[in-house]
Amino acid sequence: MPAATIPLAAALAEGPVVLDGGLSNQLQDQGCDLSDELWTARLLADAPDQIEAAHTAYLRAGARVLTTASYQATYQGFAHRGRSERETTRLLRRSVELARRAARGVPGVWVAASVGPYGAMLADGSEYRGRYGLTVGELERFHRPRIAALAEAGPDVLALETVPDTDEAQALLRAVDGIGLPVWLSYTISGERTRAGQPLAEAFALAADVPEVIAVGVNCSAARDIGPAVAVAHAATGKPVVAYPNGGEWDAATGGWRDTPFDVAAMVRDWRSAGARLIGGCCRVGPPDIARIAAALGHL
């Protein structure tokens, strides 16, 4: 049974909820080797205890939403490693079970099943560009089986995250139609546009009338871009906003990170004022950062 006693959407109506941070950086800090195309998803098979330990670290820091290690877990990706469809389904379910296990006995914790973009499966930085050359229908067919498997595992919410363009957003929204779970839709952006260059107001508006969507917003983006995007997301949809930036900037050209320090406490208060209700971190944001976010929001 879910650890949380009320639906996440109801909790958002009462005030902000703290998300966790980057799973990959925490796993690396724990000594895990992520130099693999499956990235964190490989550990679902090889080191599930490490994933549970990472979830626990964020829980202790004040996170109340734990995001599963399924971002890069796809049927196609695991098939390339010789795993059957049945095995992949089992690993997707395990991602939810590990987060549930970490949250056991702690009240008011929700599990978000991560649904990463098509580009994550390619493992070539495509999620920072979008426009894969696929139709909306082809993208929907890619996402639908994984979404169904994760939904059957019983998370509290599906996190449709790091979406680089509106074509993929449309595909994902089609795939969750009638799924029976709330979802959030979160774009990765550059300035005032999606990574593929579409205006954010148009991108967010796609989710405005979708009943499954309880929040829209941005993740895996530079912190300086979050505040303006939160305001646009709230204005375009009237829904609560989700915001979880990177602790740096990814340079797709060099395949490396540029450090861009930011004042967590000051920023999250501004994001909250602009409509953000799910606030945490993405890549390179660890438990100490989440503890500061929780403190800034009055959760500690």
Automatic annotation (TrEMBL):
Residues 5-297 form the Hcy-binding domain. Keywords: Metal-binding, Methyltransferase, Transferase, Zinc. Its cofactor is Zn(2+). Zn(2+) binds at C220, C282, C283. GO terms for molecular function: methyltransferase activity. It comes from the Bacteria. GO terms for biological process: methylation. It holds the Pfam family S-methyl_trans. InterPro entries: BHMT-like, HCY_dom, HCY_dom_sf, Hcy_S-methyltransferase. Its EC number is 2.1.1.10. PANTHER family: HOMOCYSTEINE S-METHYLTRANSFERASE-LIKE ISOFORM 1, ZGC:172121. This is Homocysteine S-methyltransferase. The gene is mmuM.
